[in-house]
Structures are given as structure tokens and as C-alpha cells.
Design goal:
The protein has about 260 residues and is an all-alpha fold. The protein has one domain. About 85% of the residues lie in helices and about 0% in strands. The protein starts with a helix and ends with a helix. The N terminus is likely disordered.
Length: about 260
């Protein structure tokens, strides 16, 4: 009874531990959408701001806002569609590999059994323990198939609801990320800043947001939060500056 109680408590603790961890798929979707939306729109609006400011008589702020909003929603729709189709592609790949494994389990059982044994050998099992584990897996076709999919092919199952959820999350995260660099320009009439001030504020806000995203990624998964934040910041700002530089050269040449 005491042993059973201890085992039950261990299972309960493991379940609570699992529930406390963020789901990696949701986290990666959020990071993908928010980072991509932020970086792409930052590059667009900085480039548009520089090019518009170089043209006398134009309403630079209106052009920046129009370009930024257009890029925001185009980016979110595009990213959501890519997330949906890529997730479905992973699902199709998983299903095709599963059918192939089923055929091989019937047509080449000895070979498939040996592949199970090799996985356990790689994990350090030897002798009687190795044979016992192999026999237990092979005796259950469902467990055998799932074992091969997970540990031979390193594939995880994907369902259609996951594709829809990923598309929505990536699309919404792209909108949120895109609005970050655009916000200082929206507030420009209230602050009285110049266009240069808006550009600087947009760069600062975006840099801080990118650092926070990288920091949170490391905290939720693994790694050094400060290093992860700095990497995200450097990569994102470098990408945006590339667009800024191109627009500046084009604007200078046009002027």
C-alpha cells in the first residue's frame, strides 16, 4: 500500500511538472510570428521613413503609417498561411512514414526488430535486459510502431487542429510584433517628435522587445537568458538595418 501511494504521488508530481512547462510548439509559433513580424515591419517602415523624408513636399508620417499597416497585415496573413501549410506538410510526411513502417513491420519483421534492439543498445541496455525490452516492444504492434516513429525516425504526430492553431497563433503574433516598431510613429503627433525621433524610438522599442523575446525563450526552454536575448536583438536589428540602409541609399540617389 505504501509503495502504491508513493508511486501515485510520483505520478501526480510528474503530471504537475509537465503542466507547468510551456508547450514548445506554442512557444516556437509565438516567437516565429512575433520576431518575423517585428523585424520585417521595422525594416519596411524605417526604409519608408528615410525614403519619404528625402522627398520634399510629401507627408512622410502618413506614408510610413500606410506602409507599416499594409506590411503588418500582409505579413500576418502570409505567416499564418505558411504556418498552416508547413504544419500540414509535416503531418502528411508523418502519415506517409507511418504507412511505410507498418509495411516493413509485416514484410521485414526481423529487420525492424533489430532496429528496436539497436535503439536500446544506444541507450546502454545489454544482455537479458536488452532482449526483454525488445521482446516487450515487438509484442505490442501499436507500441512497436510508435517506438519506431519516435526513436528511429525522430518524428512526432501532427493533427489538423494543430495546423489551424499554429496558423492563428503565428498570424496573431505577427500582428503584435509588427505593431511594436509602428507604435512610436502612431504617437508621433502627440509627442511632437521629428521623423528622426520616431525612427530612433522605433529602433529602441524594437530592440528592447527583441531582447525580451529572446530572454523569455531561454527562460522557458534552456540556455542563458542574457545571451539568448542579445542574440535575438542583434539578429533582428541587423536585418532591419539592412532594409534601412537600402532605402537610405535609394532615397539619397533619388534626392
Amino acid at each position: 500500500m505504501a509503495l502504491r501511494l508513493a508511486f501515485w504521488r510520483r505520478e501526480e508530481a510528474d503530471a504537475q511538472s509537465i503542466e507547468q512547462h510551456p508547450k514548445p510548439g506554442l512557444l516556437s509559433d509565438f516567437i516565429l510570428g512575433s520576431q518575423d513580424g517585428l523585424v520585417n515591419v521595422l525594416g519596411v517602415i524605417l526604409g519608408v521613413a528615410v525614403a519619404a523624408a528625402a522627398q520634399p513636399g510629401t507627408n512622410a508620417l502618413r506614408i510610413v503609417l500606410a506602409g507599416g499597416l499594409a506590411a503588418t497585415f500582409a505579413e500576418s496573413i502570409s505567416m499564418g498561411a505558411v504556418a498552416y501549410t508547413s504544419t500540414l506538410a509535416r503531418r502528411d510526411h508523418y502519415l506517409s512514414e507511418m504507412e511505410r513502417e507498418k509495411r516493413e513491420m509485416v514484410e521485414l519483421p526481423d529487420l525492424e526488430r533489430d532496429e528496436v534492439r539497436k535503439v536500446f543498445e544506444k541507450w546502454g541496455f545489454r544482455g537479458a535486459n536488452l532482449e526483454e525490452l525488445t521482446n516487450k516492444i515487438v509484442a505490442n504492434p501499436t507500441a512497436w510502431l510508435e517506438f519506431m516513429m519516435a526513436h528511429e525516425l525522430n518524428l512526432a504526430p501532427v493533427d489538423k487542429t494543430q495546423a489551424r492553431r499554429s496558423a492563428v497563433l503565428v498570424g496573431m503574433a505577427a500582428i503584435v510584433g509588427s505593431l511594436v516598431p509602428l507604435a512610436p510613429f502612431v504617437l508621433l503627433p502627440l509627442t511632437g517628435w521629428t521623423m528622426s525621433g520616431g525612427i530612433l524610438a522605433s529602433m529602441i522599442v524594437s530592440a528592447v522587445t527583441l531582447f525580451i523575446i529572446g530572454w523569455y525563450k531561454a527562460k522557458a526552454t534552456i540556455g542563458h537568458p542574457g545571451r539568448s536575448g542579445a542574440q535575438m536583438l542583434i539578429i533582428g536589428i541587423a536585418s532591419a538595418i539592412a532594409g534601412f540602409g537600402i532605402a537610405y541609399l535609394v532615397g539619397a540617389a533619388g534626392g
